[in-house]
Amino acid sequence: MATKNKKKRFAAFINGRWVKEGSQGTFENINPADTRDVVGVFPACGPEEVAEAVAAAKEAYESWRLVPAPKRAEIIRNAANLLIKHKERIAQQMTREMGKILDETRGDVQEGIDTGFYASGEGRRLFGDTVPCELPNKFGMSVRMPIGVCGMITPWNFPLAIPTWKIFPALVCGNTVVFKPATDTPATAVELVEILLEAGLPPKCINLVTGSGSSVGNAIVDHPDVRVISFTGSTEIGCKINERAGAKLKRVSLELGGKNAQIVMDDADMELALEGVLWGAFGTTGQRCTATSRLILHKKIHDKFVEKLIERAKKIRIGNGLDPKTQMGPLVSKAQRENVKRYVEIGVNEDKAELVLGGKELTQGPYAHGWFFEPTIFVNVKPKMRIAQEEIFGPVLAVLRAKDLDDAIRILNDTPYGLSSSIYTRDVNAAFKAMRDIEAGITYINGPTIGAEVQLPFGGVKGTGNGHREASHTVLDIFTEWKSIYVDYSGKLQRAQIDVQAG
Ligand code: NAP
Ligand code: MG
């Protein structure tokens, strides 16, 4: 379905103004289901624009930090209400921009709404502690302080939800923002900024700088006045950012890749486990950081489960995500499809796993102009194979066989990542053992590896990040500094640890 559209021009938002021209020209954003459809033309910015954006955010910080937190939070609540109002329109545009199906883009906007309401509640909490002091007539408390200008660098797979996870709590805490969205999803970023402005945010508190990772991203990471870098994306880029920003002692929060697995034990509800893995592996065309890319089956149910899985995966309806009948959209870009093709070749040639479904790009008929790929399943995968170790970020599932629960958990843990995980079992003892022994930031019992809710911490262990957690109240630890305050109302010098009466 080609749409002959006049190329719409979009702008960046810097220093309180919409800016159509970037110092590095422009770039086009293409619909991955139909590459003849240009979603829009965007300014390609660079270090100059980043410098202007950071200066504006720094200036705005001085007044924004003094606005009472409940008032800051009201603006975020307004933004959440505006997201409700515009949910359908934003979802439609997001599907056109990055390809996932409408149910999922609606879910993406819903996650932004949920985050908005959750973060705005924090405006009346932002709890610190009051504690007794060891000396008489002395009062102790800890309070959360904002940090300053935060640089937000985000990926394309959750174009609205992930920016809101960062931007909403950061603003409630009193920080200001320079936001660099992924090159594949700048249109959704423009929507979010428009909504924040309509909600009443002072314009210089949010700056949207569109452009490439190498020019805009690096300039944000290197700028001395950006005190926090919050990054979601690949482990490779995250590590580079960590080094650069770490050298300047910035606070760096990293949400990176995953190689998530679902375990199915021999006592599990097989139909439930089947539905779980189909959704976990092929939802969002496998392009979720929490996607199920490994399935670990107990040996007793292995063959039967695989048979049913293939039968069901074959029936997945692939197509343009704007068509309500579609169950799986295209990959986001040509580069992403090339990457998936490369991993299928590795699976077949290098790893010698058995390809039992899919493995090919779709290029004919309705698929001729998009980045479509078949749902793909490998069996006889061994834990050390590259397709069992490396993040593929596409609709490719590696199936492994386990002897028992311990073996399954050992296989699950045997990757460099630790984001999400799942086990299907009816045995409460096995479930609790899995909850304890699986090395991951998230564990689902009898649910797929995808489906996080905003009131629980989100993030992972090992190669998935550097210990921070977004969502929940734990996100406040990324965007605030603790200050400890001692009030001595004794009217005399009191020396801690020295003037204390012996007990
Ligand atoms: P990516 O290539 O790492 O890019 C992420 C962001 O970083 C984009 O905005 C990108 O800009 C920017 N960037 C690229 N190079 C940069 C540099 N040198 N300095 C600063 N910024 C730079 O990741 P992606 O392909 O967009 O997203 C997929 C990855 O994200 C997967 O690995 C996935 O697992 C991970 N992810 C993790 C989570 C989580 O919470 N753990 C959630 C979602 C996704 P350009 O777009 O301009 O290149
Ligand atoms: Mg696009």
Describe the structure.
It contains 14 helices and 21 strands. The protein is an alpha/beta fold and 503 residues long. It folds into two domains: 44-256 and 465-484, 3-Layer(aba) Sandwich (Aldehyde Dehydrogenase, Chain A, domain 1), CATH 3.40.605; 260-445, Aldehyde Dehydrogenase, Chain A, domain 2. Helix 2 (69-98) packs antiparallel against helix 3 (102-122). It is globular, with a radius of gyration of 24 Å. Bound molecules: NADP nicotinamide-adenine-dinucleotide phosphate and magnesium ion.
Topology record:
Layout lengths: L11 E3 L2 E3 L6 E6 L2 E10 L3 H18 L4 H30 L3 H21 L6 E4 L5 E9 L2 E5 L7 H12 L3 E5 L5 H13 L7 E3 L4 H10 L3 E7 L2 H12 L4 E5 L4 E5 L5 H13 L9 E7 L3 H13 L19 H17 L3 E4 L3 E2 L9 E2 L2 E4 L6 H4 L6 E7 L2 H9 L6 E5 L3 H10 L4 E4 L30 H4 E9 L15
Parallel strand pairs: 7-8, 7-10, 8-9, 10-11, 12-13, 12-19, 13-18, 17-18, 19-20
Antiparallel strand pairs: 1-2, 3-4, 5-6, 6-21, 14-17, 15-16
Helix pairs in contact: 1-6, 2-3, 2-5, 3-4, 8-9
This protein binds NADP nicotinamide-adenine-dinucleotide phosphate and magnesium ion.
Total number of β-strand segments?
21
The share of residues in helices is: 25-40%
The parts where pLDDT drops under 50 for at least 5 residues are: none
Distance linking N and C termini: 81 Å
Q: Tell me the number of helical segments per DSSP (H or I, 4 or more residues long).
A: 14
CATH topology of the largest domain: Aldehyde Dehydrogenase, Chain A, domain 1
Q: Which structural class should the secondary elements be placed in?
A: alpha/beta
Spatial arrangement of strands, main beta sheet: 14-17-18-13-12-19-20
CATH superfamily of the largest domain: Aldehyde Dehydrogenase, Chain A, domain 1
CATH class of the largest domain: Alpha Beta
Strand portion, in percent?
Answer: 15-25%
Largest sheet: 7 strands, mixed
Which word captures the global form? globular
Assembly state (oligomeric): single chain
Bound molecules: NADP nicotinamide-adenine-dinucleotide phosphate, magnesium ion
Report the radius of gyration as a whole number of Å. Answer: 24 Å
Number of structurally distinct domains: 2
